[in-house]
């Protein structure tokens, strides 16, 4: 039987603003990536989302992003590897404190948005992010784009890595994600997203926008929590995976360590 993790980006509201339906989405995922206050989220939202995930038995990860609330962390910024290290340590440590305060254990770290894509392509940035995770807690799993520099950097440093694919995004022939700014960057049809998730899990393949077959290592599939169809799409993806006899469960972190 095939096995896959379903991860979802959550905790993205802040102040008086609410984004997504965290309460409904958390039970559909096996891992959640909680915003840490830079691109989205705030202390109260972090605490509430951590508590919801612990109550549901869903594995928790930190979702550090660039300091760009207006752009939701999806705009590239010129940052140095040292800055990438510092902002990762800061955000991972903040969420880990909330998880510990609520009596839980954090499972993983998955960079957000532009930081994720930058670390996927730049070895120096990838090494800085991976080193930040290792220094905070070497038992944490590092989630990254399948075949990316971030996965390579994590493995080089001895971290357990989890290769990620996206149900609702299109791909380029080199295995990178099509930019969101592209008119066909997102799969808006929930059935298409579900079919893509099943195929990536079973075959380890996805068809690029130009029609090429791209091979991927897939251990976790992301379902986004901020779109209009997020809830309906997430339910359909989960149902399609189960119908294909694919077990859905979170990956296991390494031996305890760090904070």
UniProtKB/TrEMBL annotation:
InterPro entries: Glyco_hydro/deAcase_b/a-brl (IPR011330), LamB/YcsF/PxpA-like (IPR005501). It is an enzyme of class 3 (hydrolase). Keywords: ATP-binding, Hydrolase, Nucleotide-binding. It catalyses: 5-oxo-L-proline + ATP + 2 H2O = L-glutamate + ADP + phosphate + H(+). Coiled coil: none annotated. Its EC number is 3.5.2.9. Forms a complex composed of PxpA, PxpB and PxpC. HAMAP family: PxpA. Catalyzes the cleavage of 5-oxoproline to form L-glutamate coupled to the hydrolysis of ATP to ADP and inorganic phosphate. Belongs to the LamB/PxpA family. This is 5-oxoprolinase subunit A. It comes from Paenibacillus residui. The lineage of its organism: Bacteria, Bacillati, Bacillota, Bacilli, Bacillales. The gene is pxpA.
């Amino acid at each position: 039987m095939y096995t896959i993790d379903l991860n979802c980006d959550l905790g993205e509201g802040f102040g008086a603003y609410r984004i997504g339906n965290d309460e409904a989405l958390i039970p559909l995922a096996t891992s959640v990536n909680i915003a840490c206050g830079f691109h989205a989220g705030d202390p109260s939202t972090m605490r509430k989302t951590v508590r919801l995930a612990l109550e549901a038995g869903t594995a928790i990860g930190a979702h550090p992003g660039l300091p760009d609330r207006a752009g939701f962390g999806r705009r590239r910024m010129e940052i140095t590897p040292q800055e990438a290290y510092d902002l990762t340590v800061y955000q991972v440590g903040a969420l880990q404190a909330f998880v510990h305060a609520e009596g839980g254990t954090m499972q993983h770290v998955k960079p957000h948005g532009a930081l994720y894509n930058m670390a996927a392509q730049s070895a120096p940035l990838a090494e800085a992010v991976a080193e930040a995770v290792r220094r905070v807690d070497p038992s944490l799993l590092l989630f990254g784009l399948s075949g990316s520099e971030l996965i390579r950097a994590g493995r080089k440093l001895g971290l357990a890595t989890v290769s990620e694919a996206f149900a609702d995004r299109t791909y380029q022939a080199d295995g990178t994600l099509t930019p969101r700014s592209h008119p066909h960057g997102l799969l808006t049809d929930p059935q298409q997203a579900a079919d893509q998730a099943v195929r990536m899990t079973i075959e380890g393949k996805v068809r690029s926008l130009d029609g090429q077959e791209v091979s991927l290592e897939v251990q976790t599939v992301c379902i986004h929590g901020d779109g209009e169809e997020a809830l309906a799409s997430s339910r359909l993806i989960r149902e399609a995976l189960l119908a294909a006899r694919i077990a859905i469960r979170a990956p296991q972190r390494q031996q305890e360590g760090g904070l």
